[in-house]
Amino acid sequence: xxxxxxxxxxxxxxxxxxxxxxxxxxxxxxxxxxxxxxxxxxxxxxxxxxxxxxxxxxxxxxxxxxxxxxxxxxxxxxxxxxxxxxxxxxxxxxxxxxxxxxxxxxxxxxxxxxxxxxxxxxxxxxxxxxxxxxxxxxxxxxxxxxxxxxxxxxxxxxxxxxxxxxxxxxxxxxxxxxxxxxxxxxxxxxxxxxxxxxxxxxxxxxxxxxxxxxxxxxxxxxxxxxxxxxxxxxxxxxxxx
Length: 241
What we know:
Blueprint: H1 2-17, H2 19-37, H3 50-80, H4 83-87, H5 94-124, H6 132-156, H7 160-178, H8 189-195, H9 201-212, H10 218-238
């Protein structure tokens, strides 16, 4: 456990020292929040205030950036630079490497989420979550499911650059179709139907439900668990030093 904590701490420091990783995890979501609300805190078709929909949505945006873009690129770069070959000579196991990488990148996502929520409260009068435990549970399951996909991408990608390209290729369509950038209330029926097929959509729906106090959907939460298990098992089996 101590070794795992040390690896997580090192990975987190490396991530914070990388200007691009730090900007996309901490700065870019704040810019997105300003862009979405620069014309005022309007009400959406369902009656919710724009800020009360936008902040929960952008928390998934942050998770997606960390899990689908930064995480796989880091893991693929480690293999490309033969860092994993060196780790093979240590007691580190694939599970420890995966756990450390996931935890370090999700700490960045937590910091980004805190900044977004804080900005929403201070600048736009964000309403407190109606069910904080459900919001936290949904956030964690979203981080696990999207992080597992990111680990799988990092294992399969031939290089860090390829992992970045693939991650971005998955991330941007997902955030626009799943409701992580555009509120689902503003989408057409066909766009919502397509977005529902993405692994990001359950996280968006569950966090927004928890924030609004609409209760938890066992199906939505179960989908995230299933994605985590399937992608996680596939990543472990495909792992190579």
